[in-house]
Design goal:
The complex is a heterodimer of chains A (895) and B (111). Chain A is α+β, with helices and mostly antiparallel strands and 895 residues long. Chain A is globular, with a radius of gyration of 38 Å. Helices cover 55% and strands 14% of the residues of chain B. In chain B, strand 2 and strand 3 form a beta hairpin. The chains are: A alpha+beta (895), B alpha+beta (111).
């Protein structure tokens, strides 16, 4: 279609009268010229007119052909079809409504998945020219490690000073946890030019400037994200210019960002603060500004290609002696597009989302099958109407087109409904998540319904067209395959080849339901299994509490010990379950230490109360005495595994070991542990062996350290392990409320129950999603099955009457009706069960829950297939019983 | 007895005739048909009922464009003229026609 063509078509549509008038005028002029020619040739005006007319032929026909050439006929037919469709909807509003609602539910569910996918992989952040933004990364040397090198503040400063491929470069330090007025929040620390480089202005107030971010001396100012402004301050504009407490220090709120700005992250943080405030916001990093890992993002100069820039930056890195190198491997730089989502991973993300699209799409598929069934039945009742139109000369194509137009209108209405449904489901999902997730998870994830944008709308429109083809095409083709003569005679064939299409649809529906129900059952069983895994630690009433502010340690300790909810206190470093890796060397009594083997172990400092408090059983020897509260006492306790690894086949108690000082980390990130107690370089004598302390299941399993050394709660860096009274989540909240008064920037508080329950939680979420989908699938399938059988019974009532008159018992009749179902349902069960097993094996094997989920669980399969068979039998029994109650006399007399 | 077939145009040749006729300037529909008839010495008579659909089709394809002007009869008439892409199309179609008629001519002589 050329541009001119388009213009002419649009003109014909926009001003149809004028175009028609011009056409008439043009044709009339031709006839006029012809008449004039004949008159000039000597004919009388009358004869000339007759002859000219005869020669021209039919003027309306020519005009019609011109209209066809103009190409607006398509629109004319479309208008007609749409009008006709609305008449049909008015005649059968209930059927139209059923179709719209069924398809809307299916489309809505798929749109939910797409909205999530879109949020993670497709959306581009609302910044100026995002295509120019590239993250600067240092990949590891090939085949050496898989760990990417971090860029530090020094690297950033050098990059900004010495290279010229970017118009400007920004750096950010994400995931800084802080309490704003008591609420836990997560912020990003940024260089002063952050907002200028992105080209974004504040919605209210101002953004940060270079002056706010003096090195080591940032101004105490923050910019709030729109979400934080709405949730923390109820969107009150008066917060601008106010000072708020951030981890206890006072910060001025200088700006609020627009809602669509996410700061190059998948979701916006709560606040942005100057990078120079790092030491104040994260005490553990104070004075180490040069060693923190930064995300560095530059805006390429116009005309500089990423390839050229990469080469230039690699050359710069090679000549920069400050950058740490990996042996002789050359230093390289990689530029990755940074658009606010992981757009580079969109294809891989699609792969990740395929199981979700598939599971949610099954509901759409079942819905479409139901609708197709309904349309097939309606096609039969519309045979007469269609027959008449066909015999009046309408082409089959035209009628199929008209039926498809009807379906498409319903599909589009369903797309609108689907959009509403997807918003509803996402909002409901978010509030369910907030209500049911363990509080510390809900806080960290910051659950909020994901926003929709034009991509979601486009996806729904495409989905509407696809589903229209899915549910509308086959019924439309079938409805127009008629024996005209018989139809016209009024012998409406009640059903042209009823069985196969219907049975195929039922089989597809049962297959899809079986897959979902089997999936739900498998995950339910796995969740139970994961919940039954015996933790090697006491998790029911224990809490980890990080102490972050050293000067406040005595006050915090006092407050914790005095707290009514705390039953017992122990100390540990690091704060997590698990320890710090280092190398241990074992010296047998008769050999010098240097010649002995070294093996990697995890060590951890704990106070003497630690083992009792967490119920870690002592296997041999003893744990620390109350007096042993410092590593300089030279005693150690080892776990069963480490004992067997270091002294295979020998008694571990009484052996001596040495530990290397662990390598201090080159770079620091926001989750880096605080500097721990000093590890003395001396021999440790093993005084006891304890059981391995494991928590969680599958890939979420964490194992506590293998070597324990003694410290006390007063040691700098030590965190606390508490046993509390009552429910640990309630106790946790109470502790936060009371302790944040002592130390407003207090660290994380985590219940061990949450750590232990992560695997169970994930399986439970998957189970609930699969269960809801399976329930919906089954409900849709059963309603389809029910209506098909009811329809068949009604349609065959005469035949059934005859059979009963000839002596069939009600039992025979019930059997006859039910036998209709046996084959499609059996096929669906086998196919669904088989597919579920196959897909689960493929998908689960590569997913994070591998090892916890027992994919081929015979009990889960048997139970779900049983549920489906029972449900189908129940749904079928109503029409079957109705058939058995048919009065043969009445039916036969009716005819 | 062999019949003289009606001088029906070969499919596709109507477009060529219209484009060629318009090569020397703009004409209205009637003048195009008259011109073809005159030059072909009445052998080729364009069916009027197909002339106008063809003109509209060519206009949609962008090969000719139309303007309204006052005709010799003193009435408003729609004049068609070649566009630059129409000129290119004419060269292509004329070339194709030459080759086709030459080929048919050879077959008629030698086969």
């Amino acid at each position: 279609m050329t541009l001119r063509d388009l213009i002419l078509r649009v003109r014909a549509l926009a001003a149809p009268r004028r175009v028609e008038r011009e056409l008439d005028e043009e044709l009339a002029f031709h006839v006029e010229c012809e008449v004039q020619k004949y008159i000039d040739g000597g004919l009388s005006p009358e004869d000339a007119r007759t002859r000219a007319r005869a020669r021209f032929g039919s003027v309306p026909l020519a005009a019609d052909q011109c209209r066809d050439a103009r190409g607006t006929a398509f629109f004319d037919t479309l208008t007609q079809d749409v009008r006709y469709a609305f008449t049909m909807f008015r005649r059968a509003p209930l059927a139209a409504l059923t179709i719209v609602l069924t398809v809307a539910l299916g489309l809505g569910l798929v749109a939910v998945v797409f909205t999530c996918y879109n949020a993670l992989f497709l959306r581009v952040d609302a910044v100026r020219n995002p295509a120019e933004l590239f993250e600067v990364r240092r990949p590891p040397a090939p085949r050496v490690t898989a760990v990417w090198h971090a860029l530090t503040r020094q690297d950033y400063d050098a990059l900004r000073r010495d290279t010229s491929v970017f118009t400007d470069v920004l750096a950010m330090f994400p995931l800084v946890e802080a309490r704003i007025a008591g609420h836990p929040t997560t912020g990003t620390l940024v260089t002063g030019n952050f907002f200028q480089v992105l080209g974004v202005n504040a919605a209210l107030g101002r953004t940060l400037t270079a002056a706010d971010d003096e090195r080591f001396a940032g101004q105490p100012v923050i910019v709030l994200s729109h979400r934080a402004w709405a949730t923390l301050f109820a969107a009150d504009p008066a917060v601008l210019g106010q000072r708020v407490a951030l981890n206890g220090a006072s910060y001025e709120v200088i700006g609020i960002m627009p809602p669509q700005f996410r700061g190059l992250a998948t979701s916006a943080p709560d606040y942005w603060a100057p990078l120079g405030r790092l030491g104040q916001l994260r005490q553990a990093l104070a004075g180490k500004d040069d060693r923190v890992e930064l995300d560095v993002v530059g805006r390429l100069k116009p005309g500089v290609s990423p390839k050229v820039a990469t080469a230039a930056l690699t050359a710069w890195a090679a000549g920069n002696p400050q950058m740490e190198a990996e042996g002789d491997h050359p230093k390289t730089i990689l530029l990755l597009p940074r658009l606010g989502t992981n757009s580079a991973g969109a294809v891989r993300g699609l792969l990740l989302f395929t199981p979700m699209f598939f599971a949610f799409g099954l509901i759409l598929l079942i819905g479409c099958a139901n609708v197709a069934n309904l349309l097939l039945a309606r096609g039969v009742s519309r045979q007469r109407e269609i027959g008449i139109r066909l015999s009046l000369g309408a082409s089959r194509r035209r009628i199929v087109g008209q039926l498809l137009t009807e379906s498409l209108l319903l599909g589009l209405a369903a797309a609108a409904g689907g959009f509403a449904a997807s918003r509803l489901i996402l909002e409901a999902g978010a509030s369910v998540a907030v209500a049911t997730l363990p509080p510390q998870m809900a806080e960290q994830i910051g659950v909020a319904a994901l926003a929709a944008d034009w991509r979601v709308v486009a996806f729904l429109l495409g989905g509407a067209v696809a589903s229209t083809v899915l549910f509308g095409l086959a019924p439309a083709l079938r409805a127009t395959r008629l024996e005209l003569v018989r139809t016209m005679r009024g012998e409406v064939t009640r059903d042209a080849r009823p069985g196969r299409a219907r049975h195929a649809l039922i089989a597809v529906q049962v297959t899809a339901s079986a897959m979902l129900v089997v999936g739900a059952a498998v995950f339910l069983r796995s969740a139970f299994a994961a919940a039954r895994v015996e933790p090697g630690l006491r998790v029911t009433d224990t809490v980890l509490l990080e102490l972050t502010t050293e000067p406040l340690r005595p006050a915090m300790l006092q407050a914790v010990r005095a707290d009514a909810s705390v039953a017992a206190v122990a100390a540990s470093w690091p704060a997590r379950i698990g320890g710090q890796w280092t190398e241990a060397s074992v010296s047998a009594a008769d050999k010098p230490a240097e010649t002995s083997a070294r093996s990697p172990v995890e060590f951890k400092f704990v106070s003497p109360e630690y083992f009792d408090l967490l119920d870690i059983a002592v296997l041999k020897g003893r744990t620390f005495t109350p007096a042993e509260r410092s590593p300089s006492t030279g005693v150690a306790v080892v776990s069963d595994t480490v004992a067997r690894k270091l002294w295979p086949g020998r008694e571990a108690v009484g052996q001596v070991m040495r530990l290397d000082s662990p390598q201090p980390p080159q770079t620091l990130y926001s989750g880096s542990p605080s500097t721990g107690p000093h590890l003395p370089l001396r021999a440790f004598t093993v005084v006891g062996v304890v059981r391995d302390a494991r928590v969680g299941a599958g890939m979420f399993e964490v194992v506590d350290a293998g070597v324990y050394l003694p410290i006390g709660a007063e040691s700098a860096g030590a965190s606390l392990v508490l046993r509390v009274h009552g429910d640990p989540d309630l106790a946790r909240q109470a502790l936060i409320d009371r302790l944040s008064r002592v130390d407003p920037s207090m660290g994380r508080v985590t219940t061990l129950r949450t750590i232990a329950g992560r695997a169970t939680l994930i399986l439970q979420i998957v189970f609930w999603v699969a269960a809801v989908l399976g329930g919906l699938a089954l409900a849709l399938t059963l309603s389809g099955l029910f209506s098909v059988l009811s329809y068949l019974v009604e349609q065959r009532s005469k035949e059934i009457g005859v059979r009963m008159a000839l002596g069939a018992t009600p039992r025979d009749i019930t059997g006859l009706v039910l036998s209709q179902l046996v084959r499609p349902v059996a096929f669906g069960l086998v196919a669904g069960g088989g597919l579920a097993g196959l897909l689960a094996t493929l998908i689960v094997a590569t997913s994070p829950v591998a090892g916890i989920v027992k994919v081929l669980d015979p009990l889960a399969y048997a139970a779900s297939l049983m549920v489906i068979v029972t449900a189908c039998a129940l749904a079928a029994s109503v029409p079957a019983m109705r058939a058995a109650r048919i009065d043969p006399i009445a039916t036969l007399r009716n005819d | 007895m062999a019949r003289h077939p009606a001088p029906d145009l070969l499919p596709g040749t109507l477009d060529l005739l219209i484009l060629r006729t318009l090569q020397n300037g703009s004409l209205h529909g009637w003048a195009i048909s008259e011109r073809v008839q005159q030059i072909s010495q009445d052998v080729l008579q364009i069916n009027q009922g197909s002339l106008y659909p063809a003109l509209h089709r060519l206009e949609h394809q962008g090969w000719i464009e139309a303007t309204w002007a006052v005709s010799e009869l003193g009435r408003r008439a729609k004049y068609y003229q070649l566009t630059s892409s129409g000129r290119r199309q004419l060269v292509v179609e004329a070339d194709a026609w030459e080759r086709m008629s030459a080929a048919i001519g050879r077959v008629m002589k030698l086969a």
